[in-house]
Specification:
Largest sheet: 3 strands, antiparallel
Oligomer: single chain
Length: 444
């Protein structure tokens, strides 16, 4: 009996290995259990860039940070290298060193605020898996004439919805990209491709959206940069004035004595106007509880601002309120249907969804999407090209020159390959090729 059992097991093992050998590499990848699941930042649908395995999130134009940091750090380095030597000689030793040290510490704080603003989640609203269902049929019918596509087809989601904010009716818009009604003060950033809570603007100098979770750090960055510019501007002038008194020079000869001071005076004067004006504008927005987007879009100076609760309460809301936690855990593993929230809903076998992501396709047996490289479809595409080419030859009334077509027609194909091949044939516009793959039994 033991020998018979060993014999049966041997036959089963040989049969399993022969069946396994019939499948191609792409078939085995589909049928084998999936590997470790991807994380949210790896399948993120927005245009953001991630660092340190999803711990930091940047905007798509994060390279602008290099220019911004250079415009801040380089003038301070020149100030410490050339202007500070004259200040140390002019002032007592400990005061001169304190002036230089304060400039360095202020620069570190400014750059830190810049990086915090650029690397934080600005308040991205999670995307919805399905469009919202209508709440009231009467409301849908009354709104049916206000948006295109609903008169000649099935009813669609209304473009706006009225909600109550502080006793005032506010219209919120429907976002077709995120498939949700945006909360009040939320807007969709076309650069980052995300709906951002309390959206202010997309800052090109920071390379990130400015929203509810990083607006406070942005305002501190802008205001501290303005103060740093005034600091360098003032002590550069002090250095020039001391040179004029010590050597009895006029202004022109003093500038020739310390040309770096003159360059820093011109540079910081222009920069102080820019960042100082920006700081004043955002201080006005904070006192009136507006965002940059609302100020340019809705003009609350003409109509009432429903979010305004008084100057002191508005300042406390921005500067003293608790920053809400992020609605995303970018390092969380994505499993099952939840991955469709972060990835595109329409999939093309021949084109990748993102330049940074591999080409995706559906797992036939498991019902899950797996990231598969482009070379996995080469053998399948060659079979499809052969079928389509044969069909074209038959239409032209000619026969193929090679006689090994019968051998290709007898290639082992699994139902998985047939389904993928049929879908690929439909995308190429070849219905006859699909019929050939599916076989004569499916043609009815």
């Amino acid at each position: 009996m033991r020998k018979d059992d060993d014999f049966v097991r041997t036959r089963e093992g040989m049969h399993g290995s022969s069946m396994h050998a019939q499948h191609s590499d792409s078939d085995r990848r589909i049928m084998d259990p999936p590997g470790p699941s991807l994380r949210v930042f790896q399948v993120w649908k927005g245009n953001n860039k991630f660092c340190f395995n999803g711990r930091l999130i940047f905007g798509p134009d994060a390279k602008s940070l290099i220019l911004t940091v250079s415009l801040i750090v380089v003038p301070v380095i020149l100030f410490c290298a050339f202007v500070s030597r004259g200040l140390v000689r002019i002032f007592p030793y400990h005061i001169g060193n304190f002036i230089v040290a304060l400039a360095v510490v202020s620069t570190v704080c400014v750059v830190s605020l810049l990086l915090i603003t650029a690397s934080r989640d600005p308040g991205i609203i999670p995307r919805s898996l399905h469009p919202p269902e209508p709440e009231d049929d009467g409301y849908m019918s009354s709104m049916s004439s206000e948006w295109p596509g609903s008169q000649n087809g099935p009813p669609t989601v209304p473009p706006t919805k009225d909600i109550m904010v502080n006793g005032s009716i506010v219209k919120v818009k429907y976002c077709h990209t995120c498939m949700l009604y945006r909360p009040p003060r939320c807007s969709h950033c076309s650069i980052c491709n995300n709906c951002v809570e309390r959206f202010d603007h997309h800052c090109p100098w920071v390379g990130q959206c400015i929203g509810r979770r990083n607006y406070r750090f942005f305002f501190l960055f802008v205001s501290s940069t303005a103060m740093l510019c005034l600091y360098v501007f003032a002590f550069s002038w002090v250095n020039i004035m001391k040179i004029m008194d010590a050597y009895h020079y006029d202004l022109w000869r003093a500038l020739l004595k310390s040309p770096v001071s003159g360059i820093l005076i011109l540079y910081t004067f222009g920069a102080a106007w820019f960042v100082g004006g920006l700081s004043s504008f955002h201080l006005y927005l904070i006192c009136t509880n507006q965002t940059t987007y609302e100020n340019f879009r809705y003009r609350y100076t003409i109509k009432m601002n429903p979010h305004n609760r008084g100057c002191f309460e508005n300042i406390a809301e921005v500067c003293c309120s608790t920053i809400p936690p992020s609605k995303h855990n970018f390092r969380e593993k994505v499993k099952g249907e939840s991955s469709s929230v972060y990835t595109n809903s329409t999939i093309s076998l021949g084109h990748p969804m993102s330049p940074e992501m591999p080409k995706p396709r559906y797992d036939i047996e498991m019902g899950k999407r797996q990231a598969v490289a482009a070379e996995d479809l080469e053998d399948l595409q060659s079979q499809i090209d052969s079928v389509v080419g044969m069909d074209r030859l038959e239409r032209c009334g000619t026969q193929p020159r090679h006689s090994n077509w019968d051998q290709k027609a007898n290639w082992p194909s699994t139902p998985d390959i047939q389904i993928l091949a049929a879908e690929f044939g439909m995308e190429d516009g070849s219905t006859t090729g699909r019929q050939k793959i599916e076989g004569p039994s499916d043609q009815k």
